[in-house]
Write a structure and sequence with these properties.
With about 140 residues, this protein is of the alpha+beta class. It has one domain: Jelly Rolls (Sandwich). The chain has 3 helices and 8 strands. The strands form 2 sheets. Strands 1-8-3-5-6 form a 5-stranded antiparallel sheet, with helices on one face. A 3-stranded antiparallel sheet has the order 2-7-4, sandwiched between helices. It starts with a strand and ends with a strand. About 25% of the residues are buried.
Length: about 140
């Protein structure tokens, strides 16, 4: 039997927003001993990652790395961009999302996600303003 829900996650602009807790609640409420959880974000300018949740410097360093790798659209290095209608943060956000992932697969055993000790599930927001994002959780 499959279980599914949609989470609404609010980001505060660029960076990582952990939402491991609500996912754990969903999984435990499904009363499924073993299975595979799919986590899917319904947007093209943000992404999902599993990352360390113990040291906040990891999140800061990741954000800084991606900002250097893919600067804002108004940076001279990005003069080649064609898709600019939605502002200087839009196309770089699409590039960052393409470099990461929009879905995750997490095994479930004994009714719990098999994440490592320091692993958390994060929405990686690539746009500059706060956004509401929808995350689909599907467990079977």
């Amino acid at each position: 039997m499959a279980h599914q829900t949609i989470l609404s996650i609010h980001s505060n602009g660029p960076g990582l927003t952990e939402f491991t807790g609500p996912v754990e609640q969903f999984v435990s409420g499904c009363s499924l001993d073993r299975g595979l959880l799919t986590v899917f974000v319904r947007h093209t300018s943000c992404s999902l990652i599993i990352q360390e949740n113990a040291d906040p410097d990891v999140q800061t360093d990741l954000q800084d790395f991606f900002s250097r790798l893919v600067p804002a659209g108004d940076d001279p290095a990005m003069h080649w961009l064609r898709h600019t209608d939605e502002g200087p943060d839009d196309m770089p956000a699409h590039v960052k999302a393409a470099l990461t992932q929009t879905s995750l697969a997490i095994p479930i055993d004994r009714g719990r996600m098999l994440l490592g000790t320091w692993q958390g599930i994060y929405l990686f927001e690539h746009r500059t303003r706060p956004r509401h994002r929808e995350i689909v959780l599907h467990l079977q």
